[in-house]
Amino acid sequence: MKRIGILGGTFDPPHIGHLLIAEEVRVAQNLDDVWFMPSHEPPHKQKANADASDRVEMAKRATAGNPHFKVNTIEVNRLGKSYTFDTMKLFNQEHPDASFYFIIGADMVEYLPNWKHIEELLELVTFVGVKREGYKLASEYPIREVDIPLMDISSTDIRTRLADKRSIKYMVPEKVEIYIKEKRLYESR
Ligand code: ATP
């Protein structure tokens, strides 16, 4: 049985917080791989700032150095809103020999009751939660907790820094920083 972690997100842009939680959960839960899965239009968030193609490219650059990390483009290719339930149902059909672990930061936990078919989704995946600065990891649903070093880094903060022409060095992998500069992403609010 293959054990696959899924890290869904906007990755607008991807940062070292994403990489660290993926690696910590991978090791703690003995996962074979972690798939970074950018969403096209996040159901519970406002529109992304960078194009889906740029977010995919940045995710690929961010994950390039880890042989266990892959970028899965199913949700960006599907266009419009994607629901985790639909995606995970498909993954389970396509990979009957795999079990899936869906990684979420504590800020996402409060939205779980609003997720499409959450009860059925709980049958399809094991949720693995990690703490996040300012949020509690408490939920009415069973969530496996993996302890990680707290990192108060968010894509929102990175975008604000870029708009203010402040440094983002060490907050994103160097390859991502170079891409952002080359493509002049996030220069205005
Ligand atoms: P934004 O600031 O634009 O809302 P974000 O930094 O939360 O973005 P997402 O791409 O939305 O990044 O996050 C994908 C997943 O990673 C979510 O489950 C989120 O909770 C988790 N996550 C992101 N950053 C961190 C962090 N620093 N610590 C723990 N979890 C994180």
From TrEMBL:
PANTHER family: NICOTINATE-NUCLEOTIDE ADENYLYLTRANSFERASE-RELATED, PHOSPHOPANTETHEINE ADENYLYLTRANSFERASE. The gene is nadD. Pathway: Cofactor biosynthesis; NAD(+) biosynthesis; deamido-NAD(+) from nicotinate D-ribonucleotide: step 1/1. This is Probable nicotinate-nucleotide adenylyltransferase. Keywords: ATP-binding, NAD, Nucleotide-binding, Nucleotidyltransferase, Pyridine nucleotide biosynthesis, Transferase. It comes from the Bacteria. Catalyzes the reversible adenylation of nicotinate mononucleotide (NaMN) to nicotinic acid adenine dinucleotide (NaAD). Belongs to the NadD family. CDD domains: NMNAT. SUPFAM superfamilies: Nucleotidylyl transferase. One of its GO terms (molecular function) is nicotinate-nucleotide adenylyltransferase activity. Its EC number is 2.7.7.18. Gene3D superfamilies: HUPs. Pfam families: CTP_transf_like. It catalyses: nicotinate beta-D-ribonucleotide + ATP + H(+) = deamido-NAD(+) + diphosphate. Signal peptide: none annotated. Residues 6-161 form the Cytidyltransferase-like domain.
